């Protein structure tokens, strides 16, 4: 039987993996967007687990809003990424220094 602590530990591990992914890979924008999404999904899993444990739907309501924000963030981030790739022919973070005004 899975308990609340199992889900919270798994969420903490996924969150730690995403934080390490952000610090280790600062070159590729796609990987940075994926690690941010992993971070948001680990938080969502914790919200759902606590909501189920307490027996109310408040956590699931938060998850709905977080998923909406994450979807819009991914759409805007990928649109910016496509535009940068068309202009600079690169998605490396170091090449974005040319955009400074």
Outline the structure in words.
With 101 residues, the protein is mostly helical. It has one domain (4-99): Helix Hairpins (Orthogonal Bundle), CATH 1.10.287. The chain has three helices and no strands. It has helices at residues 4-24, 29-54, 58-88. Helix 1 packs antiparallel against helix 2 and helix 2 runs antiparallel to helix 3 (58-88). The chain starts with a helix and ends in a 13-residue tail after the last helix.
Tell me the layout of helices and strands.
Blueprint: H1 4-24, H2 29-54, H3 58-88
In summary, what is this structure?
The protein is mostly helical.
**Radius of gyration of CA atoms, rounded to a whole number:** 17 Å
Number of distinct helices: 3
Number of strands: 0
Which fold name corresponds to the CATH topology?
Helix Hairpins
Tell me the structural class: mainly alpha
- The CATH architecture would be Orthogonal Bundle
What is the first-to-last residue Cα distance?
Answer: 57 Å
Number of domains: 1
Percent of residues in β-strands:
under 5%
Low-confidence segments = none
Order of helices and strands: HHH
Shape field: elongated
Residue share in helices?
over 70%
CATH class: Mainly Alpha
The major pleated sheet works out as: none
- The average pLDDT score comes to 88
């Amino acid at each position: 039987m899975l308990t609340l602590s199992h889900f919270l530990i798994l969420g903490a591990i996924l969150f730690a993996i995403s934080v390490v992914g952000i610090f280790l890979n600062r070159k590729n924008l796609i990987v940075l967007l994926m690690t941010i999404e992993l971070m948001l999904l680990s938080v969502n899993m914790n919200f759902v687990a606590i909501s189920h444990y307490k027996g109310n739907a408040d956590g699931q309501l938060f998850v709905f809003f977080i998923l909406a924000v994450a979807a819009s963030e991914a759409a805007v981030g990928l649109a910016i990424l496509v535009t940068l790739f068309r202009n600079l022919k690169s998605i490396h973070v170091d090449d974005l220094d040319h955009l400074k005004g």
